[in-house]
C-alpha cells in the first residue's frame, strides 16, 4: 500500500500492538479506520527477524505474552482465525540464585509447590493460597488492567465480590513492595525471589511501592496461563492483528510518519504526515505513541493548558535496555537442571541483589552485577531455529541516557560472563551474537 484515503472515521497514529488492537475494536463497530506507521513495518515492539543468522528467528523486543493470552480484549478478537498460535515451554520460569539453587514456576502447580518447598517447607501451600486468592479476583482484575481507564465497573465488581474487609486487604496489598509481600507470604528465598523477579519485568525494584502486586500478578499469570510465545515469532501476533483489521476494511500504511495532529475548534480532526499528505478524521484521532511525542510534537504545547504542559515536564522515561541475541548450536547447559525446561530464566540475584541492581539504576550507575532476563525461544517454540539448536536472548537494564557503544558492549560481556558461570560451556555454543543497545532498540521501535 502506498497511499492513504483522504478521509476515515478514525486515524490511528502508530501501528504498535495497542494501536492495532484499538483499530480492530473500532473496525468491529463499523468504523472506517486508517493506521499510519512511521517505520517500514507494523508492530512496534512486536516484531521478529533473523537477526543472528539465517534460520534463527529473534523477537526484536517483546517475546512472551502472559497478559496477552489472558487479556479479555485480545481474546475477543479471536486472532487464532488469523493464524496466531500460542506455544509454551515445558516450564514457565526459573529463577536462578547466585549459588545455583533454582525456584521453578510451572503451570503444574504441584511442580511449583514442590520446588518452593525445597527452600522452606510450607511455602508450597502458601503459594497455593496465593493462587486461590488470584482465582477469586482474576476476571475482574484482568478487566481492570486491560479495559478502559479508570476501571470503575471492574472495581465495583471487585467490591461486590470481596466485600469491604477483603477489598481493604487487597488495597493494602496493591501498595506493598515486593520484598514485604514476599516476607509476609513466604519463608524461603525461592518464592520471595520469584515474586520480586517478576516485579522487575515491570521495572520496579523490590523495595518500590506497588512492586508486590505487579510481581504477584505476573507470577500468578505464569501459574495460570504460562508465559506463552507466538508460534513463529512475536511478529505472528502483529500479522494476525493486521490481517484481521484488513479483513474488516481497515488500512495500514507504513513509512508514513505523522508530523502534526490537525486541530479545529479544540477537536482533533485529522493528521498531516511528513510528506505533507492529509488524512481527515470524521470521528476520532488515536495515538499509539509516547505522551511527550503526542502532546509536544504532534499537537503542540501552544494548544495545551499551561498546567498540562507543566505536567509533561514531570514525565519520566524508564531505564534503558541492553539486549543480546544468540544463535546457539545446542541447548544451554544450565547447572540448575530445572532451568533447562523453562522458557524464561531470571538470574543471578536474590531479593537483596535485585535491590542493589535497582539502586544502581536509580543512582545512574552501571550495575557491575546485572540482573538478567533470559529467553529460551526454541525450547518454547521449536520453529524458532533448526532442530538441536537454540535461539536465545537476554536483556538487562542500564541507566537512562546510556548510548556509548563501549558501555553497551561491556555490559553485554558482563551478561555473557554471568551466563557462563551458571551454564559452563555456554560460550562454546555461540554461533553468532548480536548486541542491541538503547539506540538500536529505538530504531526498531521509536516508542
TrEMBL record:
Residue ranges occupied by any Amine oxidase domain in the UniProt entry: 19-305
Pfam families: Amino_oxidase
InterPro entries per UniProt: Amino_oxidase, FAD/NAD-bd_sf
Function description: Probable oxidoreductase that may play a role as regulator of mitochondrial function.
Subunit structure: Interacts with COX5B; this interaction may contribute to localize PYROXD2 to the inner face of the inner mitochondrial membrane.
Name of protein: Pyridine nucleotide-disulfide oxidoreductase domain-containing protein 2
Protein source organism: Thermocrispum agreste
Amino acid at each position: 500500500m502506498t497511499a492513504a484515503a483522504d478521509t476515515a472515521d478514525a486515524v490511528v497514529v502508530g501501528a504498535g500492538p495497542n494501536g492495532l488492537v484499538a483499530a480492530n475494536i473500532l473496525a468491529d463497530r463499523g468504523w472506517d479506520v486508517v493506521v499510519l506507521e512511521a517505520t517500514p513495518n507494523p508492530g512496534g515492539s512486536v516484531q521478529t527477524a533473523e537477526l543472528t543468522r539465517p534460520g534463527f528467528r529473534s523477537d526484536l523486543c517483546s517475546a512472551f505474552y502472559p497478559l496477552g493470552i489472558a487479556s479479555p480484549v485480545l481474546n475477543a478478537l479471536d486472532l487464532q482465525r488469523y493464524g496466531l498460535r500460542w506455544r509454551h515451554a515445558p516450564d514457565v520460569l526459573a529463577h536462578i540464585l547466585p549459588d545455583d539453587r533454582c525456584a521453578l514456576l510451572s503451570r503444574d502447580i504441584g511442580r511449583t509447590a514442590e520446588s518452593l518447598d525445597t527452600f522452606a517447607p510450607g511455602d508450597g501451600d502458601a503459594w497455593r493460597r496465593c493462587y486461590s486468592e488470584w482465582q477469586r479476583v482474576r476476571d475482574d482484575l484482568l478487566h481492570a488492567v486491560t479495559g478502559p481507564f479508570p476501571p470503575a465497573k471492574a472495581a465495583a465488581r471487585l467490591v461486590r465480590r470481596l466485600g469491604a474487609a477483603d477489598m481493604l486487604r487487597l488495597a493494602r496489598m496493591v501498595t506493598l513492595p515486593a520484598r514485604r509481600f514476599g516476607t509476609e507470604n513466604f519463608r524461603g528465598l525461592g518464592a520471595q525471589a520469584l515474586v520480586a523477579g517478576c516485579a522487575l519485568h515491570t521495572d520496579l525494584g523490590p523495595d518500590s511501592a506497588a512492586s508486590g502486586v505487579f510481581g504477584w500478578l505476573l507470577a500468578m499469570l505464569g501459574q495460570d496461563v504460562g508465559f506463552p510465545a507466538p508460534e513463529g515469532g512475536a511478529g505472528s501476533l502483529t500479522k494476525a492483528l493486521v490481517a484481521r483489521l484488513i479483513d474488516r476494511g481497515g488500512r495500514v500504511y507504513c513509512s508514513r510518519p505523522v508530523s502534526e495532529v490537525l486541530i479545529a475548534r479544540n477537536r482533533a480532526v485529522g493528521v498531516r504526515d511528513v510528506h505533507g499528505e492529509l488524512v481527515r478524521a470524521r470521528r476520532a484521532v488515536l495515538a499509539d505513541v509516547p505522551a511527550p511525542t503526542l502532546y509536544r510534537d504532534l499537537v503542540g504545547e501552544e494548544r495545551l493548558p499551561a498546567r498540562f504542559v507543566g505536567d509533561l515536564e514531570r514525565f519520566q522515561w524508564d531505564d534503558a535496555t541492553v539486549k543480546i541475541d544468540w544463535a546457539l548450536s545446542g541447548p544451554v547447559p544450565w547447572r540448575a537442571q530445572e532451568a533447562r525446561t523453562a522458557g524464561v530464566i531470571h538470574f543471578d540475584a536474590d531479593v537483596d541483589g535485585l535491590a542493589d541492581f535497582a539502586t544502581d539504576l536509580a543512582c545512574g550507575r552501571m550495575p557491575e552485577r546485572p540482573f538478567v532476563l533470559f529467553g529460551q525461544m526454541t525450547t518454547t517454540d521449536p520453529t524458532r531455529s533448526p532442530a538441536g539448536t537454540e535461539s536465545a536472548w537476554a536483556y538487562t537494564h542500564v541507566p537512562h541516557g546510556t548510548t556509548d557503544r563501549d558501555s553497551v558492549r561491556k555490559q553485554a560481556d558482563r551478561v555473557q560472563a554471568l551466563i557462563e558461570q551458571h551454564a559452563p560451556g555456554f560460550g562454546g555454543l555461540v554461533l553468532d551474537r548480536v548486541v542491541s543497545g538503547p539506540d538500536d532498540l529505538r530504531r526498531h521501535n521509536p516508542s
